[in-house]
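Weekly puzzle thread! Below is a chain. First person to post its structure in C-alpha cell form gets bragging rights.
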Amino acid sequence: MIKDDRVHGSLYTDREIYQRELERIWYRTWVYVGHVSEVPQPNDYVLKSIGPQQVIMTRDRHGEIHLLLNRCAHRANQVCDAPRGNSSAFRCPYHGWTFANTGKLLGYPFNSGYGGTEAKKSLGLGRVARVGIYQGFVFGSFAEDGPTLLEHLGPAHEAFDRLVRLSPEGEVELTAGWVKHKVKANWKMLVENETDGYHPQFVHASIFSVAKSGIGDLYGEKSTAVSRDLGNGHTENDLRPEFRRTGRPMGWFGTSPDRLPDYVAKMRKAYGEKAEEIMIDGSPHVMLFPNLFIAEIQLFVILPTAVDETVQHVTAAQFKGAPDLNRRMLHQTIGSVGPAGFLLA
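Winning reply:
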C-alpha cells in the first residue's frame, strides 16, 4: 500500500481504511478541538468535533475547560443543538435528563427506575478522556493514556509560540467567526495540500500577479524557503529564510511599519530589541497533524465527514491588543478564502 516513492490510490477511497483511520488516528491521538477565546466567560460553551464525533467544549463556573460528548447517557440523543451559548446545564429534550456543563448528571425523571439518586454518579455525559491546552489551543484525545500533548507536538509546538508572540499581549483570539468549505475529497488530500509548496506558483498564479504581493516569489525556483518534516505527521513550509533575506519588518504580511504604526509601536514596547526579529519572521505556515493548519493570517480546521468528503473550517487569526492589524487580517482572509475569495477561485 505504501512504498518509498508512491502510495496506493485506495488509501484515499477505501471505506474500510477510512474507518480504521478514525479508530487509530482521530479517536486515539491528540486532535485540535478549539481555542479558549471561544469560551471566554464562565458557563460559555461551543459545539466542536473530534472527527465525526460532536463534542461540547465548555468552561465551567470555576474557569475549567471540559470536552463532553454531545450524546445523552440515556438514549444517545443530542443534549445541545445551539452552536454556542452560555449555560450551566444541558437538558435532553427526549426524556428530560439534565447534565451540568462539567458532564455530571444533575437529575432525571422517575429516578427510582434507574437506581435512585445514588446512580447519578455513573450516568454523566461521556467525556473526552484527556484534554490538553497549549498557548490557548485546546486539544482532546479519546485515549486514556499515551504520549502527552507536548510529546505529540514535538518541535511543532514552536508554531504556537511564534504565532502568539505576534500579539503585543502574547495571546491569539479566534473571535472573527468561521467559514466552512465542503470538499468532495478524502481528508488526507487537504492535509497534504496545506504545506505543499509545489503548487502555489501554478494554482494561485493569477491572484499572485493581480495582488502583486510578492507571495509567488516565496515559492519560486530561487526561493530559499524550505519544507520541513517536524515528526508525528506535522509539516512546515518555513518561509523565514526568505523574510530574513529581505529583512523587512511586516514584509511577511505584505506591508511595512509605516502602514501599521500603532501595532509596531506596541510590539516594540512589548518586546524591545526582539520586536524587529519577530516582525521580520512573521507567522508560521505549519500543518499540525491531523487537523489544524496555521496559514500565516488564518487557521484551517479539517473535519472528515466521509471517506470522500471533508469540511474545512476557516477563520482569521486575531492578535490581542492589535486592532489595526486584526482588521486587515480579517479583510485579507475574506478576500482570499471567503465566499468570493480569490485564493480558492
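Puzzle host: Confirmed. Bonus trivia for everyone else. Residues 323-337 form the longest helix (15 residues).
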